[in-house]
Each structure stands twice: as C-alpha cells, then as structure tokens.
Amino acid sequence: MKDIAFRHNAGTVDLVYLQNDRGHMGFLIVPAGLDLPFADKKEFIDPLVQVHIRGDMLPGAYMNGHSLSGSLSAMRFRFVLQEAEDNKVITTLEDGLGHKLRHIVSWKDGWEGITICSEFINESDAPVVLEDLSSFCLSGLTPYVEGDACGCLTRHVFRSFWSAEGRLVSDPLERLNMEPSWSLHGVRLEKIGQVGSMPVRGYFPFEAVEDTKNHVVWAAQLAINSTWQMELRRKDESLSLNGGLGDYDFGHWAKEVKPGESFLSPEAYLTVVAGDLTDATQALLTIQKSRNTLMPDTLPLLFNEYCTTWGVPSEENLSSVIEKLQGKGFDGLVIDAGWFREGDALWFENGGDWNVCPELFPNGLKSVTDRIHAAGMRAGLWFEWENIGGKAHVREKTDWMLKRDGYTLVESGKTYLDLRNPEVIAYLDQNVIGRMQECGIDYIKVDYNGTIGIGCDGAESLGEGLRQNMEATKDFFRRMREQIPGLMIENCSSGGHRLEPSMMEVSTMASFSDAHECPEIPVIAANLHHLILPGQSQIWAVMRGSDSLKRITYSLTAAMLGVMCLSGEIYDLDEAQQAQVDLGTAFYKKVSPIIRDGRSRIYREGIESYRHLTGWQAVCRTADSGDKILVVAHAFGLDAPADIVIPVPEGFQVADQYSDGTCTITTTADGLKITIPEDFTGIAILLEK
Hints:
By secondary structure, this protein is an alpha+beta fold.
C-alpha cells in the first residue's frame, strides 16, 4: 500500500511524496491544478534517492552489472523528517547505520520546474565508499492510467554525435520491451548516458516520459559536464526514472565519504506539464534562463574566421576581413585556431604553449586586436587550454598531465592538463588569461576536441578523478571572468559536445555544432531549441564568393535560429551578394530580441536523413511579450513546391520578411501559408499584432 505523505506546490508543479507501510518514501511531480485522480496500480515505490554503498548486497532481479539502483543500501533508508521552507523542501532519510540522505528540492518564481540534488552525510564512525548516488528519482509513472498503461507511454531522448546534435528519438514503451513480466518479476531497464568529459556524446543528458492518453509529460535534464547516466526502470505497473553521476559499473565512479563528511550530487532540472514534449522542454529552459547571468541583453552579430583561413589566420588575411566588416554592424571578430603555430606543425599540434606565431603576426597579435577594436568590434581569440598538442613544449611537464593507472593519458596524440594542480592553474593564469590581457582580448572561444574517457588518477576512483577535473574546468571559466570583467566566453567542444546546463551557466554562449556549411544546419539548430537557449546557441553562416543569393539566404536564415556568426570569404562577395548579406544581418538584428526572449515550436515534414535532406521545417518563436512571432522556414530536397501551413494566433500580420524573393506568403483560415518553390531555400518572417 502507498499513501501521499506530503504534497507541496512549487509554482507550475506539485511535489508529491509517496510513502508505503514499510517506511519507504518515493517522489513524484504532477502538473499544478490538473484534476485527475491517481489510478490504483500494482506498484512498489522506488526510493527517493538511489544510493549504493560498497560492500552492501547488490541489486537482484537480474540487474547486477546493469544497474546499482534498488540495492540494499537504498532500501535501508527510511523517512525521518521533512522541512518545507520558502521555495525549498528538504527531506531527510536515515538507514540506522549512521548514514543520512538529504533530498533537496528548490524552485524560484518564474521557473516552470524545479531543481533536485541529493546529499549523503556520514555520521558513522567508519568511512563509506559510495558507488552510486542519484540526483533525482521519479516514481509512479504514469499515475493517471490503470494497470501497466499499455499503449499510453512514450519515452523521449535526444541523440547526439559530431555534427549531428540533438536528434529526437521517441519510442513507445512496448517498442523498448519495457512491459512488465507476467509475474511482475525481473526489472526492465533502459539506460542511457555517456562516459568521459564530453557530456553531450551519444545523448544529451535529458529524458522525458509522456502519458499520451492524458497528455502529461515528465522531463529531466542533468547539469553535469562529466560522466552521467539516466535509468528508466520498471518491474510492475509503474515506471521510475532516475539519473545522476555515472555509477561504478557504468562510469567507474566511487567516492569515499569519511566520518563527519558529506557529498552533494550534481543538480537535476525537472518539470511536468499538461501538454506535449515541446511544452516540457520550453518549461525546463525557464530554469536555464534564470540561472544564466552571462547571456548578453542584446545578441551580438559575430564573425569567426575559421572557415576563412582554415587554421592559418594572419595579420594579412585578417586585415582584409576587418576592412570588409567595418561599418557593417558586426559586434565581434574571433581569431580562431592557428595563431600559435610553430614551424611546419599543424595548428592542433602546437596547442598548449600559446605563443603568438611571429611569421603570421610579424607586428604581434595586439596590433591586429587594436585594429579590431578600432573598427568597433570585440576581439576574440581561440584557445583549447585543457588539452596539450603533441608538439607543444609544455608537454615536457609530465607531472602536470593527467594519468590513468600511472601512465600519462594520451588520446589522438594529445594529453590533458590536471586542473587540480595549482602549478597548472598558475601556468594558465600566465599563458591564457595573461595572453588575453596582454593582447586586449575581450572574447574567448574555449574549444575542447577530445575526451578523457572513463577517468584519471588522483582520487578514490577514475570516475571521481574525472568529476573533480571537470569541476575544475568550470572553476577556470569563472576565473577568466573574474580576471577579465565583461569577457565573453564561447563554450565549444568539437561544436556541441558540452551543451549541458552547468557549462552553459558559466558561458556567454556556445558553438551549436561543427556543421560549418552543411545543409542540415537549420535542422540541428532547431533541435537545440529544445535543449539550450537560442540566445546562447551560436550558429555558423559561411559565405563564399561562389554562393548564389538563394544559398546566402538559406545560410543566414538558418543562423537566425540562434546567435548569428558569419565566416568564409566575405571579401570575395560581389555587390549583389553583399547587399543580400546586409539585408540578412539587419533583419537578424531586428528580430534578435525574439531569439533571446521567446518560446519555440518546431513543425516538420518528410525529414528522415540529415545528410540527404528532404521535406521542410518551420520554427515559430513567439516573443515573451506575446506580440511578435519569428517564423524561420526551410525547404530541403523537394519533388514539388513546398506549401507550409503553420497555425498562428488570430490578430498577427506579416510585418517584415527576409528571403531571396521566390517565396510567397498568404494567410488562410488554418494559419500562415508559406509556398517555397525551390529546394534548399530559406525564409524568415516577422509577424506582429
């Protein structure tokens, strides 16, 4: 039997604490104000916090080796007390062995969700080694349908690989083979996660469960830049969803907690909505927006020269770029990789020394950054300061490098600095922060093209070594801002491999992908509207002298799905091409307040392959003020003209548009109709009341 022990309102969601007659407590969130009764089901409450202590009996029901959830450690804990303060609920559990768990739920006005973390406290006389500690655990999904809710539950995740970030994959529970057994024995498990220092590799740290009968969606997102996991578990007629640090079996994470010490898990962001998946993702973004203080009030127009010089920037070629950009409304020019080249080495082989190449910059780098500033732009510079290239001289400092099992950790020729070492931080202070101060840099692009993998030495486990080092990464991001007030920081990791909340919180914006000139740019950029703020999503728009006006428009409209960043042979454009670019950048500046402060909904048809695109896509972003809508539409490979019809609230009219002149726009009873006659064509439309 289970009962509702406590219920609290947290804005748009209600917190429901479930308790059974054995003293176990579980946790569920439901939409505030949703008047639906809970169904009577055969279910066991999953613990409020999943925890495993080394030496305890491992989980049964065929889970050993797959998961540490549901072990004896977690089942020992019983409810002790709950403290409800303003915008916070703390629930304390004890196991009778001198160990406590604190389950901490927080929220703020304006959030459409909550944050959760767990704290393990050791009040015993002996050290304890944790091998698992969840950040959150939701129990009792779905509470609104009798029995096992056959045909009513769908799991949503976002898959991600290099240059193919954020693809939504939605599966009914039956397709995942997650139906309970005939005897309710044997746990069903669907586990996702990633191991290493690229948190968005394989999957984004996000998962959602949808009750398609009652149109309720539960969604969770982890704020973590190291190994993580999420587990969808089922043994009976309900589901549970938990997530946090990758456990010992999955990510070799173990943490010793000595008597009198405690350990706090990473945060998770959770929401539940009466609506669909888009409603849930937009709700979670209200938490990201509140937590991020670095996103600029006015979105910049940027130029990054990487797709211009391809790793060989110089005073000469940058002079041509500066001359072309001056007076065109650009807010920043970023000097990308290669400014530190030495001899005939490739740019990625010298990373780590950070000495300005005298052959490329005979008058020094500051002479160029002074010209950038004189042209009214921020001067940006690329670093990859966590990694050391194969020919860098600092590589000789072997005691500064991360080790695994006593050996220097080497991956694709590069090594990794141990950011826990004070000597390393002093070196970075001098050669990264000092170099920026010396050259007048007020924008840094921090790249990260590799992964530490399972972890490194220097802690109780390889996974804990990884976690500590990645926490130190975020500390240095903060340190850069402290030393250079107003510094803009771009978070890049081979494009989009670090697009998770904790890294976005210490960054001004992020590189959305390394899909520099690919036709799938608008698709990837739209995917990210579910996962990060568009006002922090920097999107490439590469210009070539050979581009048609249609191609220029396609690229620039794609970049209007986030922060616009041009690149390419801008100095090779003819008068007509330049005029089309100027119209696009002016339109971007006009609609950028909607990109920064709004809510998105994506409409698609016929998209299956990203590399061989067909069909069409339209993204509607409604301003928070409610009186403006930005529509960005693209047609891909077409057999016939695309007629895109988008539902639009009454009272909106076309106020402005940016296109190549071939598209037509009409209003119908069903909404806005956009006819795109040719393939790979883009259009952006501003609607106003």
